[in-house]
């Protein structure tokens, strides 16, 4: 069979990179509140003639100078790279969902309300007054949009993505 006539293989998700203004505070938040594992301590990366330095120059272009990074992992083995750049800026509006690019990531916890309160207690905030049900009176699937203490938007689902959407959540 011709390879162009086959459906593409569904790739697995490897990791996501998140920029934060304070690397230590972010490591503390993501390990203590979301329970992610710290797999590489905060490390300084410099613009120099090393393998990692050259790779970063390929990505950022010359003149990036240095940044700090830590690596974490979720319970389902998804990697999280936390970056602290030297001239980090917080956007004036961190919820420009209509612009191209990633505007949120989602985690799953059966206790949506409990995790939302932990995020607020750690300096984050709710982007919605309270969790919403996808199938009110029918199924217990809930969600809420939140913001971490650094301005990154995250969503919490009570159940898996497939369960939330498999029955036509928009009908």
UniProtKB/TrEMBL annotation:
Origin, by domain of life?
A: Bacteria
Q: CDD domains from the entry? A: VOC_ShValD_like (cd16361)
Q: Name one GO molecular function term.
A: lyase activity
**Does Lyase show up as a keyword for this record?**
yes
Keyword Lyase listed? The answer is yes
- Domain named VOC is located at 12-159
* Stored Pfam families: Glyoxalase
The name this protein carries in UniProt is: Lactoylglutathione lyase family protein
Which organism is the protein's source? Kiloniella antarctica
